[in-house]
Design a protein that fits this description.
The chain has 152 residues and is an all-alpha fold. The protein has one domain (14-136). Helix content is 62%, strand content 0%.
Amino acid sequence: MTEDADPGDMLAPRHCRPHGASDAAVAAAGRISEALETTERARGHLYSFHQLTGRADAQLDDAVTLLRAAGYSELADRMTTEVIGRNVVPGRWTFQLVEEYDEGYYQMLRRLEQDVRDTLMAGRRHVHEAEMKEQRRTPGMPGHEATPEGRS
């Protein structure tokens, strides 16, 4: 920081590299956090799959009613016994897939990502991104403030 730099136009301390943290440590922690963010997106898609599959199963109830009303009881019976309530994978409905994912892979990655941040970044989040922002922004230009407090 130069002597005439605006202290309000600096990164928040919670985003500053901890003393002694190497470039490699910042990069590693950043990549692991990025992987967690990707996993969060995958988890959202899994929840979408869960909700959409449940909705489709409920929609089939209406289809069965319509089949029966149209005189196709045999097809309605097949839909009821062969598809409605069926496991999506052996022994599991989608809620079980969600629970197993959450309690297994997802929770493990969250814990390890936190351990990496605690060990390498003193618990700080997004240090890599904050440094990238500092490299790419133009200090003093509107819309390039380091923090909301740095706005004039």
